[in-house]
Amino acid sequence: MRKVAVVGCGGSGKSHLARELGRILDAPVTHLDAAFYDDRWNALPMDKFTDVQRELVAQPRWVIDGNYNSTLQVRLEACDTVVLMDVSTVAALYGIFSRQIRHGAGHKGNGVRNRIHWGVIKCVATYRRRMRPRVMAKIEEFRSGTDVVLLANRRQTHRWLWKVAAEQS
Fold first, then answer.
1. How far is CA 72 from its chain centroid?
2. Which of 2, 7, 66, 168 has the fewest CB atoms inside 10 Å of its own CB, making it the most exposed?
3. Cα angle 130-147-79, degrees, rounded to a multiple of 5
4. CA-closest candidate to residue 148, choices 81, 90, 76
5. Which range, of 12-16, 95-99, 106-110, averages the lowest pLDDT?
6. pTM over the 0.85 mark
7. What b/e readout covers 38-73, taking b as 16+ CB neighbours within 10 angstroms?
8. What dihedral do alpha carbons 79, 29, 91, 96 form, nearest 10°?
9. Phi and psi (nearest 5°) for 148?
10. Residue 13, by phi and psi: left (phi above 0), alpha (psi -120 to 50) or beta?
């Protein structure tokens, strides 16, 4: 496991998993929100964002977390492992609100970017019905030999990380 794409709903635990996996694998971690938005929440133009990802995936080792379905193909074609944080809607909503309480709003310099508004809540609340099928279809289409790991809750995530750490020892 050298190149890992972590995808899933907001609040599912992608950033936490990516940080822990990067530590275990001794691989650089990129949170796509930190690459896409500046400190004032201005978005990078999509063509430049795609180019940034192409540069990232050209590296020999990496863990990249983020949704961005429009550029998911870039990561899927380059990774050897894709992890889908496939938590319930209730768990994801809990995740976004508890993150806001723990970290506050704004950018914290550690990949955590918090900005809860109605659009974020709606996206999280409808992810399993609207976005998950599209993500799954892209994984099927572009994975070509990639290992796919589905993690449905935090307990499974902790067990999987423990197993990966044990295999790396």
1. 10
2. 168
3. 85
4. 81
5. 106-110
6. yes
7. eeeeeeeeeeebbebbeebbeeeebbbbbbbeebbe
8. -130
9. -120, 125
10. left
- Does residue 21 contact residue 161 with C-beta atoms inside 8 Å? yes
Tokens of 26: 């001794």
φ/ψ of 63, rounded to 5, equals -130, 120
How far, in Å, are 73, 89, 106, 152 from residue 70 at the CA level?
8, 22, 24, 23
How distant, in Å, are the alpha carbons of 26, 27, 32, 80, 112 from that of 156?
A: 22, 22, 24, 20, 22
Closest CA to 84 of 70, 69, 74, 98: 69
The pairing of strands 81-85 and 147-151 is parallel
Q: Please give the Cα distance from 114 to 137 (Å, whole number).
A: 28
Residue indicated by tokens 């894709």: 82
Residue keyed to tokens 């809750």: 153
> pLDDT, tens digit, for every residue of 102-129?
666 654 554 445 666 787 889 899 999 9
